[in-house]
Specification:
Blueprint lengths: L1 H12 L4 E6 L6 E6 L5 H8 L1 H6 L2 E4 L3 E3 L9 E6 L9
């Protein structure tokens, strides 16, 4: 009975799709493996450093799409983390 219920629950969960997020910035460009529709730019910043989490106000997806720090990423992309001292605040 336990084994059957365990199997049923595992099948109900399904698989989480992985995406590649290429971070472009300091200290170096990094490719991160993240979860589609779950991981956010803030989660990417957490993998980089605590400073990135505190400093970042907005993300720039694929070089031209402003992206909220807590909005889930849906596909593989490039990501830049922007702060309040960015040179061009009017993307």
């Amino acid at each position: 009975m336990f084994t059957e219920e365990q199997r049923r629950q595992k099948e109900a969960v399904g698989r989480v799709e992985k995406i590649e997020v290429r971070y472009l910035g300091l200290p170096e460009d990094v490719t991160l493996a993240m979860n589609a529709y779950i991981s956010t730019p803030y989660n990417c910043a957490q993998h980089l450093s605590d400073g990135h989490c505190k400093r970042s106000a907005l993300a720039l997806k694929d070089g031209n799409v402003p992206w909220d720090m807590h909005r889930p990423l849906t596909e593989s992309c490039t990501l830049q983390l922007l702060n309040f001292t960015v040179a061009d605040p009017h993307l």
